[in-house]
Design brief:
heterodimer, A: mainly alpha, Helix Hairpins, 3 helices, elongated, B: 57% helix, globular
Chain lengths: 119, 281
């Protein structure tokens, strides 16, 4: 069970982000919640590629090959992609948020024009 | 409505928990745990390698000449994926520029803040403005270092470009910016397009083998083709073939793209907070 503790941490992050997306009404908070969810996914990927005592997969000034262990490089490359795309989508969502505020005078998604609140 | 949200959260949480219990334990990824255990193999091969990551670790230096295996995966083995990633950033910058295009009308003129290094803006603390003025060249130098050493040390085009763009953010918060937002955008978008164009051109340069083929690696040491043997070494700048060039192209694109986003969002705040609320569009 203790072997899966880090997985549980990333799942907690993902579920916190999902719950915030579903329950928060402020557009900025929804964008932040999406970033928390994304952080959970990134943590899950990095955890998948971990080796105990592993160094970064870089051979410059690395220790001797005898007994050397390196963490997996492919999850790190995928996370590099994910961070850049997460930044781009966050910038686009924030632009939509400020433009929505400019046209509606509110950040509350229940008070936007054309939205019927039924809860 | 709230009940449906709660049920969906609980359902997805349970689904993820069941999925995670079927993963391998933390710290024991699939594949060979003793990748570097045996010795005497100066010519590396696929011996004792049964997963993709171990193949990259053992053959990345021989095939791409890059000490940084993550950089070799990003720019060589998965270079086409990185092209898509750079394209996503480019498209987002285009979308934000279109959404913010009302900033470039005739009614909005940014008030002049910065007239030269001898006259700092008055409505911001002198510590902040002078500190930003001194720090900006250092941040740009560090970003260029990260970009150019992406194949031998942690870093690369995306990280270095983001570090340089943080220098732009520093200039923005200290008001050391130009008032010619339109001219700045035109120049910056030219360099951003140049970065992506250079990336695609380098991909087509090796089209005789395949798209984004690393045709310079393991060639002449004069043209970034120094051969790197398997194992730890101090790192050599003239290795890794087209990896440093691709990294430089991506760094230029990321720096100017993120700078355009930051400048437009900053000018939007100035536009929205001025007298009249900026509602003439």
């Amino acid at each position: 069970m203790s072997n899966f503790f880090l997985y549980l941490t990333s799942i907690l992050l993902i579920m916190a982000g999902l719950a915030a997306i579903l329950y928060k009404r402020n557009l900025i908070k929804i964008v932040i919640a999406l970033n928390i969810l994304e952080a959970g996914v990134n943590l899950l990927f990095i955890t998948l590629g971990y080796r105990p005592g592993g160094t970064a997969p870089i051979f410059t000034m690395a220790p001797e090959l005898e007994g050397l262990s390196m963490v997996l490089p492919t999850p790190q490359a995928l996370i590099l992609t994910n961070i850049v795309i997460g930044f781009a989508t966050t910038a686009l969502m924030l632009t939509f948020a400020v433009l929505t505020h400019r046209h509606n005078d509110t950040m509350d998604i229940r008070n936007l024009r054309g939205v019927e609140s039924n809860d | 409505m709230r009940l449906i949200s709660l049920l969906s959260v609980v359902f997805i949480a349970g689904f993820l928990l069941v999925a995670v219990m079927r993963l391998h334990p933390v710290g024991e990824p699939l594949g060979n745990r003793d990748v570097f255990r045996f010795r005497g193999d100066t010519v590396t091969d696929m011996r004792n390698v049964d997963t993709m990551d171990d193949y990259f670790l053992r053959n990345g230096q021989r095939e791409t000449g890059s000490n940084n295996i993550v950089a070799s995966v990003v720019f060589d083995y998965r270079g086409f994926d990185t092209l898509g990633e750079a394209t996503v950033l480019f498209i987002v910058v285009c979308a934000i520029s279109m959404l913010m295009s009302f900033l470039y009308n005739q009614n909005y003129v940014m008030e002049a803040n910065f007239r030269g290094p001898d006259e700092f803006p008055r409505n911001v603390s002198r510590i902040i403005s002078f500190g930003s003025f001194m720090l900006f060249p250092l941040i740009i130098s560090f970003g260029i270092y990260l970009v150019l050493h992406g194949h031998i040390s942690p870093g690369g085009g995306f990280q270095g470009g983001a570090v340089m763009a943080s220098g732009t953010a520093l200039l923005l918060i200290s008001l050391l910016i130009t008032r010619h937002v339109q001219r700045t955008k035109v120049i910056f978008s030219f360099f951003e397009s140049l970065g992506l164009t250079v990336f695609i051109s380098l991909g087509f340069a090796g089209i005789t083998a395949s798209f984004l083929y690393n045709f310079l690696a393991n060639g002449s040491p004069l043209f970034l083709g120094r051969t790197i043997p398997f194992g730890p070494n101090p790192g050599f700048l003239n290795s890794a073939g087209i990896l440093p060039l691709l990294s430089l192209a991506v760094g230029v694109e990321v720096f100017f793209g993120i700078s355009i986003i930051l400048i437009q969002l900053y000018h939007f705040t100035r536009y929205a907070s001025r007298a009249g609320g900026g509602r003439d569009i």
